[in-house]
Amino acid sequence: MNGRQNGGDARQKWPAHLRHREDGLGTTLLDVRDVSLRFGGLRALSDVSFSVEKGELFSIIGPNGAGKTSLLNCISGRYSPSEGKIFFGGRDITRLKPNRRAAIGIGRTFQNLALFHHMSVLDNIMVGRHHLLKNNFLTGALYWFGGAQKEELEHRRKVEDVIDFLDIQHVRKATAGTLSYGLRKRVELARAVALEPELILLDEPMAGMNLEEKEDMARYIVDLNEEWGMTIIMIEHDMGVVMDISHRVMVLDFGRKIAHGQPADVLADPHVRKAYLGEEDPEIEPATPQALSA
């Protein structure tokens, strides 16, 4: 039985906030207000505002260099916005450090793999739970007599649930650096899921994958959202996947938000088609042959 089939059983072992997606619908989990980001004279983001509801699968699209990863970095804490505010669960997290954001329930994957290549798959995923450890140095020293051993066993059980869900049992003891690219992407997702986040940020989770790998990854993402109750913000260039699985889509171009809404409405927006597909903007009058030859 694979992870998608036994996902319901594994889900019952996880915290209630990750099991009841329907309870949070209509509740704002993330609120980004007028965020701008500058690197010297370069403006990467300009007054970007949007909100994500609890239980939503929200996608961000746009051409290369549009500011998508910069925006995720602001949400996860790797960058501090030059202007604007970011709220998570009603709390202002604009200046909160990345480790504190992880501790309150924000996880992420990266566009470029960030695994520990010399470590096993199991150990890589265990790293995702470090902020959940409750035992201190003293109880660790008394490992066999105190609660540290019991706590480690509980963490390993949670990690095994994630391994089963993502169908990576066969590589659980393998060194991460020896795996295929598609499997390494799945291991990175597993590490982010092991953190038990309320919000998970996925930066191009299907980049570099073949068709079969993309289909599998799309199923895992949908199941994390619908069955495990995780709110998801995803950057992805495969428009077919984005339109199929997203509840809402936001489009960035040159660091600005140019569209935001239901997938079909966003795809039909002429400004989006110009920015993303290279079509002419209907608000710009085409040049006449006489003007072109002038």
From TrEMBL:
Keyword Transport in annotation: yes
GO CC annotation: plasma membrane
Residue ranges constituting the ABC transporter domain according to the UniProt record: 30-279
Molecular function terms, GO-annotated: ATP binding; ATP hydrolysis activity
InterPro entries linked: AAA+_ATPase (IPR003593), ABC_AA/LPS_Transport (IPR051120), ABC_transporter-like_ATP-bd (IPR003439), BCA_ABC_TP_C (IPR032823), P-loop_NTPase (IPR027417)
A Pfam entry, by short name: BCA_ABC_TP_C
Alphabetical keyword list: ATP-binding, Nucleotide-binding, Transport
Record-linked PANTHER family: ABC TRANSPORTER ATP-BINDING PROTEIN, CONSERVED COMPONENT OF ABC TRANSPORTER FOR NATURAL AMINO ACIDS-RELATED
Name listed for the protein in its UniProt record: ABC transporter ATP-binding protein
Organism of this sequence: Azorhizobium caulinodans (strain ATCC 43989 / DSM 5975 / JCM 20966 / LMG 6465 / NBRC 14845 / NCIMB 13405 / ORS 571)
